Amino acid sequence: MHASPVITVEALQHAFGTGEARAQVLFDLDLTLRRGELVVMKGASGSGKTTLLTLLACLRRVQQGRVDVLGTSVETADEAQRVRLRRRMGFIFQAHNLHPALSAIQNVRLGLELHGGELTQPWQEAAAHALDMVGLRDRHGYLPKNLSGGQKQRVAVARALVGNPDLVFADEPTAALDAEAGGRVLDLFEALALERGTTLLVVTHDQRVIDRASRVVTLADGRIVDDRTRTPQS
Known about the structure:
The chain has 234 residues and is α/β, with parallel strands linked by helices. Helices cover 32% and strands 27% of the residues. The chain has helices spanning 49-56, 79-86, 104-114, 122-133, 149-161, 179-196, 207-212, and strands at residues 5-16, 23-34, 38-42, 64-69, 72-73, 89-92, 167-171, 199-203, 215-220, 223-229. A 6-stranded mixed sheet has the order 6-7-8-3-9-10. It has a 4-stranded antiparallel sheet with strand order 2-1-4-5, with helices on one face. Helix 3 crosses helix 4. The longest helix has 18 residues, at 179-196. The chain is globular. The two termini are 24 Å apart. The model has no long low-confidence stretch (mean pLDDT 89).
């Protein structure tokens, strides 16, 4: 019995620019992501991975085609509906995007605010737990300027996961992480998929992530050229 779909894409197309400057980047994509999948999306630079990720994450408007996310038709959703959808998602960006004036635990708190959580006393416990899970128990009060690149990335992971999202979108989340830190984050991703039914879509070329994925989708020139289910390697 298959898990229920959380994302359904049909005949999705996308282009940038207009007139002679118009460049088509996605062509008639069909894709279904199901609850509890850890999906890797890979492909060469310019293949359309990031564009597709931002469309599915409601960060960019759908131009043509159908995109259904968590039961909402994104292409016809108004801004209030899109905001409600984004509150059920976690985002991990390659560039960290941490607030420089906030400590690690305060940056994670922003993840709770994004998810519409009540910022009463329990926020500290939740944010601290998220940092502890990524191995930053002794860095709660550190500003980003006093953290290494890998530590900043782990704060970004904690911020994305603190609100227990239904969907996680990640762009090269382990690129700055060494073997130990990367393994800890991947263990966390697997646990979320298996135990909570979280669906994770990860854009990456990191073989460590690919080895743990339950499915690998390959894009080339704006088209899905391969989509295969696999047995994750521990």
